[in-house]
Amino acid sequence: MSTIKEVQDEIISEFEILGDDKESTIFYIMELGANLKPFPESERKEEHIIKGCQSKVWLIADEKEGKVKFQADSNTDITKGLIYLLIRVLNDRRPEEILHADLDFIQKIGMGGIIGSQRSNGLAAMIKQMKLYALAFQTKQNA
Amino acid sequence: MSLNIDQIRGLFPVLHQEVHGKPLVYFDNAATTQKPKAVLNALQDYYEKDNSNIHRGAHALADRATRDYEETREVVKDFIGAREAAEIIFTKGTTESINLVAQTFGRKFIGKGDEIIISTMEHHSNIVPWQMVCEEKGGILKIIPINEAGEILFEEFEKLLTPKTKLVSIVHASNALGTINPVKKIIDAAHAVGAKVLLDGAQSTSHLDIDVLDLNCDFLAFSAHKLYGPTGLGVLYGKREVLEVMPPFLGGGEMIKEVTFEKTTYNEIPFKFEAGTPNIADVIAFKAALNFIQDLTKTKIRSHEDGLLAHANDLMKEIKGFIPVGIAKEKVSVLSFNINGMHPFDVGQMLDAKGIAVRTGHHCTQPLMKRFGIEGTVRASFAVYNTKTEIEKLAEGVAQIARLKNK
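Structure tokens for the assembled complex are given below, as produced in the milestone run.
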């Protein structure tokens, strides 16, 4: 399995192909969202919502054989694409890997300029929640 | 003679730029309009030549600043057809104007069981201040329902009126839908039961001719920044007889006649309501914005904007998946819509990538969105400097985006 850094480098080079064209980048992010696995309807609960200003995100996590499995969904297509990217980087990893992950691909892609400040805040909230899950599982493992 | 839009665009420096490599198309005018050069120059001139605190200054600069500040009050008075300049109070914006009435008129005249009527299409700033007053004083907030087109049901409004109704606070033109409400009828009906009426003019004053004497409203609240003027400045118009019986809003300098530690007597209107150093520079520059509008005339501005809205409606109705929200017969130039299968935020961001600035979301009208069973809309709102070519770009963009989910 590739490391977090390797997956991030893959993503960076994919976005490099798109160049500076914001429109095609946005369309690309939306297309990525279609790769998200269907979210279990039974988990679409208020307590799993990470609230951004305009878009909703549902996020759940599970632990199998010491690794964290994330599942997430959103009511907006662009946000779905962002979740897909985060899951691609952080899914199926040990809690400490997730906790120590430096997600510099976001800055290297120039994501802030692409998705704007509202969604950037939402993206930060998603990362925070994923790390909180990792912390919870780490605490459980060490208990 | 119709307006020379190219020439008008030349007066707005901000319009001449590219965003994301595309020429800017600015369709977020209901949120705030851009400012003509004359307003920017007035701001700079004030700070370069006249900057000084107004009233009571014993020197030339203070005299000039005071004269210019008070001159804007006169221009605002004429702009809305008020009887006298003393009925014009400068505030931070529409929100503060409404809160001022709620915290002074509301707290004094709303008692237990008294009723305030608003409509389903109010902005949160014309809902929350009344909820606060009702909660404190035991008042009752009643809501006028609307139809599917986004129009007030006048007969239902009449049924809500009782001798207990103390105030009707209603939006003149809806920010989220563009609907122009039949405010003259509403005001007459409210007065018949002895209620006062506040008009939220945030969205109407830039598009419609306003004559407060003809309308006979008791209050009118609006913001300078939606009228091609500076941000952080608003107006509250109130009839003298109503303003005089209202207690002051904020305490401090300027609003007093005499202060002793035992008792303070208050200044006359409008100063009673303008505590502290006001927003002098923006007030002075606002005059240039009002002159800009008066020179063009609202009749011509509205005719141009109506043409843009009609053109947009014609092009949009051909787009598969286009869902208009708010199709009232009487509208200002606001086009609110959704695309089947898409979140408005995504649509807005894709339009932004094409250089087209729109607003998305609930537009601070969550109860209205709930009434339509939607989370929000995409809102394109047009001003005098927008063109038919820009409308066509919007329609092309929306069509392309809609095709993603509506094949």
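Chain A touches chain B at residues 20-23, 25-27, 30, 53-55, 75-78, 115-116, 118-119 (CB under 8 Å). Chain A has a mean pLDDT of 92. Further analysis is deferred to the final report.
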